[in-house]
Amino acid sequence: MEAQEATRDLLGRIAEGLGAHGLTLDNAVKTRLFARDRASRDNGSLARRDVFSGAARCASSGLIAPQVLDAGVAVALEVILVRPRLATSAKELVEYEPQRTPLRYLTYDGLLFTSGETQGVQRWRRRSAPISPCTLNRWGWRGSAGKMRC
User: Fold this and answer.
1) Band of the pLDDT at 72, cuts 50, 70, 90?
2) Which of 1, 26, 38, 90 has its CA 20 to 30 A from that of 73?
3) Sheet-wide strand order for 28-35
4) Between residues 80 and 120, which one has the greater pLDDT?
């Protein structure tokens, strides 16, 4: 199965199973797509973008990671969902400027979820440390306590 078709199929099966738990894809806060190669990542990401639109829009990342996939599999998906504590909770989406497909980050029910960025290994190692208050301030995220001290 090609990456776009496989992604749609996986997400369709996930969506079907969520109803029994009182959830929908609108509860998604982050997705992670694992692909065999760049073409599979790009095509799977296109299908994922179509499914996670509107109220289902969420943070995302896509990784080329053939070592985590079974033979013959084009993509695998991780979908993180949140059941909000309050019925009035709503996602707060923050876009890149200029806007592009992944969100910069979102907050939902007091939690922060960031999208991944494609970058080289050295840059990733520098950025893989815990997110500092200074970084959150640069992103414009204030959290529940206002501007954080760096």
Assistant:
1) confident
2) 26
3) 59-64, 28-35, 75-81
4) 80
Structure tokens at 129: 């440390």
Give percent of the chain with pLDDT exceeding 90.
51
**Range(s) of the domain holding residue 89:** 3-139
Dihedrals phi, psi of 81, to nearest 5 degrees: -120, 155
Placement of tokens 């950025």 in the chain: 127
Eight-state DSSP code of residue 9: H
Residues 7/77, Cβ–Cβ less than 8 Å: yes
pTM of the prediction? 0.76
CATH code for the domain in which residue 132 is found: 3.30.1330
**64, 41 contact by CB (below 8 A):** yes
| Number of separate domains in the chain | 1
Give how far Cα 140 sits from Cα of 29, 67, 105, 122, 137, Å: 19, 36, 10, 26, 5
Q: Which residues pair with 59 in a beta bridge?
A: 30
Structural domain contains residue 146: no
Domain assignment present for 149: no
**How many Å apart are CA 51 and CA 73, to the nearest integer?**
20
**Distance of alpha carbon 86 from alpha carbon 18, whole angstroms:** 19
